[in-house]
Amino acid sequence: MDLASTIKDVAKEAGVSIATVSMVINKKADHITMKTKKKVFDAIERLDYKPNLTARSLVSAKSFTVGLLVPDITNPFFAELAKAFEKELSREGYMTLLCSSFEESEREKQYLSELISRGVDGVVICSLTSMETQILDALKQAKIPYLILDNRYALEEFSVHVDDYKGGVLAASELLENGHKTTAFIGSKNPYDNIYNRLQGFRNEIERAGGEVLTFETELTRNGGEAVAEKLFSSEATAAFCSNDLIAVGLYDAADKHNLALPEELSVIGFDDISFSDIVKPRLTTIKQPVGLLAEKAVQHLLLMKKDPEYHFYKELIPVSLVKRESVTKPARD
Ligand code: RIB
């Protein structure tokens, strides 16, 4: 690797002018042919050329950074989402500033104002715990494009999210097909739009078939699953639809302690399809959120918003699917 590679070296290697290289790097090359662009990219790769960010920022008035605000980075769903997001963004020459709020609205405010003062080029918000949304006004005033990803998409804001209602319907159909009538939904203590819609889809489908849904609320964590287990196990429910996979894993822990056989004595369905779902025993049946696609869409929209302040898309709905594994079976009792 040549540490001293410059834009001049890249131009020479690619056989083009310095101005052409500069236009390609700064994404102002709509009029340049693909063949020439490829020559430039190949030369950049061969020389491992790193554009001078400070200079790029001065020329383009961009910081080439984007904030990603998540509730909990220890939840594998958000870790996997952050990884996919970072990969997408870095392809476009941007860096991700990852902020984990632990679902505390004070932290969310602090992080957002910090991101504003760092002059980020955009913010993707997966954590908005407080129902007061004035917190978003500061982003508007600073003219920083932002969008909501995942949980608070009922707001009148640009958002990218999965079809949570359909996820609930798919989970219900799977339980109904297996003969379950009395079911449980384990939701969140916080009033999130996505969890609400998962419940709506699930409840409508179960009740349409003459079944019943008992509801429980807890934290969206493994501990949350354990905390709710005792009440759930002593209820009439023969199956539980958990609003995320971590809650399901918590139920597995508790079932083990209570000597409750899964899925024979309780069928379980999760939501997310984190990598653990395929590792736990019984392997967890769940509703898959395509995190790669969520990240790709969020990045695409955000960068278009940055490029053109008039750009608008409103809401992007991403499909979900049922991943059948081993945690659903016929009920042992009626
Ligand atoms: O696991 C985290 C869950 O909460 C996911 O289902 C995601 O959609 C979120 O809001």
Written overview of the protein:
The chain is of the alpha/beta class and 334 residues long. It folds into 3 domains: 7-51, Orthogonal Bundle (434 Repressor (Amino-terminal Domain)); 62-162 and 291-318, Response regulator (Rossmann fold, 3-Layer(aba) Sandwich); 164-289, Response regulator (Rossmann fold, 3-Layer(aba) Sandwich). The chain is 43% helix and 18% strand. The chain is built from 12 helices and 12 strands. It has helices spanning 7-14, 18-25, 34-47, 53-60, 76-91, 105-117, 137-141, 164-177, 193-208, 222-233, 245-257, 291-307; strands at residues 65-70, 95-100, 122-125, 146-149, 159-162, 182-188, 212-218, 239-242, 267-272, 285-288, 315-318, 321-323. The strands form 2 sheets. A 6-stranded parallel β-sheet has the order 2-1-3-4-5-11, sandwiched between helices. Strands 7-6-8-9-10-12 form a 6-stranded mixed β-sheet, sandwiched between helices. Helix 9 links the parallel strand 6 (182-188) and strand 7. It is elongated and about 75 Å long. Alpha-D-ribofuranose binds next to strand 9.
